[in-house]
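WARN retry 2 of 3 for item q-0093 after timeout on previous attempt; input resubmitted unchanged.
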Amino acid sequence: MDNIYFEGPVMWAQLDANMHMRHSAYADFAAQARMNMLISVGLEVNDLMRLKMGPILFREELIYHREVGPNDVLKVSCMIRRSKKDGSRWSVQHEIFRQDGVKAATVNVDGAWIDVLKRKLTALPEDLAAKFQTLPYTEDYESLD
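OK item q-0093 returned
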C-alpha cells in the first residue's frame, strides 16, 4: 500500500442497519484522504480560502470489493489518474484498505476548481499548479491536455 493519506477507525455513526459501513462513509473517507494529499504538497486549505476557490466534483464512483465492519481501521490511498498540466481538471483514484490489508473499495472522482464567488470554474494560480503537479500519479496516468 503506497500513498496512504488517511488512516482511521470506522465509527459507530458510519455503520448501517446491516452492521457494515454505510455507502456515503466511503466517500467521506476518500474526501478526507484527498484533502490530506493536497496538504501534503503544500496546497493548503487556507490558501484556497484566501483565493476564494475550492475543489468541486463532477462524478464520484464507488466500487465495493469487500465488506467493512465495526471497529475496522481503514487506510486510504490517493493518486492522480488524469489531469490537465495546470491542474485545472483532474481525476483521483482512491483505494480503501481494511486493517488486514484487503482492498475494501475503490473510489474514483472527477473534478476541477471553482471560484466560489463567481460560481465559475477556474484554474489554480501558477504556484499552486506547480505544487499540484508533484502529486503521485497512477501507473496508467493520462494527460488531459
